[in-house]
Each structure stands twice: as C-alpha cells, then as structure tokens.
Amino acid sequence: MSGALSWPFLRLYVLTLLYFSANSILNVIIPLRGESLGASNTTVGLIMGAYLFTTMFFRPWAGHMIQKHGPIRVLRIILMINGFALILYTISGLGGFLVARILQGVSTAFFSMALQIGIIDALPEKDRSQGISLYSLFSYIPGMIGPLLALGIWQAGNMNYFTAAMVAIALITGAFGYSAKMEKEEASSVPTATAQGASMFKSFAQLVKNPHLFKCSVLMLAASIVFGAVTAFIPLYAAQLKSGNAGIYLMLQAGTVVLARFALRKKIPSDGKWHSSFIMGTMLLLAAAAECVSFAVTGGAVFFYTGAVLMGTAQALLYPTLTTYLTFVLPQANRNVFIGLFIATADLGVSLGGVVMGPVADISSYSLMYTLCAILGASMIVFAYDRGKRLSGPNEEASLPK
Prior knowledge:
With 402 residues, the protein is mostly helical. It has a single domain, classed as Growth Hormone, Chain: A, CATH 1.20.1250. Helices cover 77% and strands 0% of the residues. The protein has 17 helices and no strands. Helix 1 (7-36) crosses helix 11, helix 2 (41-69) packs antiparallel against helix 3 (71-89) and helix 11 (211-237) runs antiparallel to helix 12 (246-263). Mean pLDDT is 83; it is low at 184-198 and 389-402. Pfam families: MFS_1. Residues 8-389 form the Major facilitator superfamily (MFS) profile domain.
C-alpha cells in the first residue's frame, strides 16, 4: 500500500485510535458521574468543555515546542501527562475531573497538531483529504464501542472496572507511543518556526482578515457547538426519553463517521475550489440531525437514532472538507499556523457546546437546547453559499500578515 494507507501512516492512525479511546468512555461517565454527585448541567458543561478549551489555548504553541524539542521527545512527555490524567479520573471527584480534563487538553493540543500537520505536509496534494479523513476516522473508531462499555461499567455499579479501563488505556497507549519512530520527512512536517512569518498573536487577526480562514472557521465553530452539545448532554438527555439509549446513539454516530469517512474519502473535494452545494448540504444535514434529536422527546427513538446517523454524516464530511480546502488556499509561509488557528476554532466550538448550552438546558430543556442548535446549523447554510468556484487565490495579498 502507498500514500495515505502506507505503513508509516497506518502506525500513526493506530496510535491515534489508542490515544482517543479513553474519551469514548469518559464522554459518558463524566456526565453520569456529575449528575450522581448533584452537579447541574452548567457544571457538567464546564467540566466537559474544559478539555477542548484547554486544547484550543495550547494548540498555537504546540508547533513551536515540537519544532524546538522534536516530535518524539514531546510525544513521550505528553503520553506521560495523558496517562497521569487518566489515572486521576479514577481517584478523584468533580474537582479532580476538571483538573484531569485540563491535563488531557494540554496533551491533545500537542498530540493532534504533530500528527495532523505531519499528515498534511508528508502527503501529496491528491492524497491530503484521504490522510486527514483517515486520521479523524481512527479518532472516532473508539466511539463505536466505548459508549456501550461505559454504560455497562456505570450500570454494573462497580467503578473498579472504570479504574481498570483507564489504567489499561494509559499503559497500552504509552507503550505504543514510546516505541513509535518518525522518519525525517515526518519530523519536518510539524510547523517550521521562523518560516511561519508573523508572530502568533498577529496571526490571530487573520481569523478575520483572511477570507478563506474566516469562512471556514465560522462554519467549523458553529458546527462544533452542535457537536459539543451532543457530546456533553446526550447521556443525560437519553435518560429522559421513553425509549432511547445514549450508548447506542453515540455508537451509531461514531460508526457513521467511521463508515462515511472511509467510504466517501475520495469524494471529499481536494481541488482547492469552494464547493458551495457540498458544504451547504453538509450544514443542512447538521441542522436536520439536531432537530431530530430535539424532536425525539416527542417522536421517540426513531428520530433519536436518525439524528445520530445524520449527525455522524455531517461530522464525517465537514472537517476534512474545510481543512483540505485551506491547505490549498492559505499562503504557504503561514499555512501551518493558520490551520492550527482553524483547528482551534473547532476546539472552541465543542467547548462552547458544553459551556454555553449547559445553562440553556438548565433554564429551559434539552429539547429546546437542541432546537437552538438546529437553528444555528440552518443559519450556516446561507453563510456557506458562495457564487464563485473559489473564494480567492492562495497568494492573495490580503491573506498575508502585515
């Protein structure tokens, strides 16, 4: 096999699967544990949101540290931090959960930046979308099993099983990561410090000034708020439904992401053009998914699980499409920094999905909260429209830092 399916890349995908396997369990256990301890939706949302909010904050600095100290050395350090965080979940309450989420966020900032930028830079243009899709696919595979495992652990009422799962994941991921090697081409794939041009703080302004980055970031932010609301509150919302299981919902959503990303990886645009109809259709799927979840409280499990499939399809298509587009149209000298900022908007959106939508659920209901998510997704259908085939060229003067 060659390209995105060659052995060096497959090894990175397997490491990704191991690294993110804990989250598929924690995304169910944390809300349920929080509720059992009397936490409000606002508190649960803050704890869940702390993970990717921290990731977003540290991501811009991750590339610099990887460039300075080398990807393998940094990888080994962050795997130790991640392992400590997983063990902390097993010996603490809500306060410890918050600290553990923050530590996980720091680790993920470095882990995901090194791997994603490495895949983008190491693959030829025609294979970029496949590589990005496969990386993201392997990060979702644990979601096909983890939620059901988490519910089984919770319903068994024996948290020793939870402790065993976290310790095992920490040890296996650490051992696999410590044995990982990175060839010279892959090592150079991380952001290349001085060649990035403007300082990190000046680069933040490009989220508004650069038309490509602005459009993609707004779309990703809005969609990620919806994804975050699902991650944070589906385990609690499902308990209010007459029929509907959070584990099955999350398994269906993750399974759809995996199948769609693999089956449609060659269909994702990889030509540097803005495909309005494709992106508008994806946002329509997102809005329909959120509304199906909202209506499930009345319509039952059929709408609940339909929402899972639609949500997974939208999730499978949007991120790799926008990321691949940006790799073509952003200025080469600052591309990795700008992509890091784009990924940070996705992190921020998922975080806000818990932090902002938690109070909404406390004040109103989960159903109304998901209806608001549907309205947000629908508004992005109009925003995604563009009359031209391409917003503008990658060397556009306005896209360069001043």
